[in-house]
Amino acid sequence: MKVLFFASLRDTLGTSELQEPLATGESLTADGLRERLKSRGEAWQKALSQPSLLVAVNQAMVPWDTLLSDDDEVALFPPVTGG
Amino acid sequence: MVQTQTEIRVQTQDFDLGAEYQQLASQSDCGAVVTFTGLVRDYTDPQKVTSPAPVSELFLEHYPGMTEKALASIVERARARWPLGPVTVIHRVGALPLNAQIVFVGVASAHRQAAFSAAQFIMDYLKTEAPFWKKETSGGQTQWVDARESDQQERRRWE
Predict the structure, then answer these.
(1) Could you tell me if the ipTM is greater than 0.90?
(2) What CDD domains does the record point to (chain A) (predicted)?
(3) Which of A3, B61, B65, B91 has the fewest Cβ atoms within 10 angstroms?
């Protein structure tokens, strides 16, 4: 699946997009993906532990227990500040 | 005949308040048009000793694709609560100087109560659900603007 990062989260991680393959039959939630990404290093561990992070799947905000598919576009970002 | 067209625009260029109002007012036989315009203001928090210089510029980032969908979904939810005519939502992105227009919400309806309420509802949800992020420049330093709990409270009163 495609994973996107926005705003301060992208700046902290130094990455705007990555591919995270999902094995056939594997069941992964958005929160599970977050835990998996934390293992990429200290900066990831710290940035992805922020309780206020939001997640969108296929361009709609979803709860963290949402199950993911390999063809999903997942986006992680900090609370929004438009308007 | 009441038109129920929704127009959503995410753009770098400025918008003309008068033209947007005229379009809403001329599209229907609605008796009320409420418009809201948000401007770039000095976001510097006086409580923060780390940002002593005034804000000189904002940069607006967004999530292309999702932003338009999120705004359209917010307008649809407003339409489910109030009988509305045409609705326009414009949000600018990119670099914006102090006092620039940043957001426009225009709502037409048969009567003022629905137009006032829907405009406020749309802004409250826009501020908490639409994927935009502000980065401010002050004294040559840039920093991401923190989300405000008060915006969440404003949104929750509609639940």
Answers:
(1) yes
(2) Ubl_MoaD
(3) B65
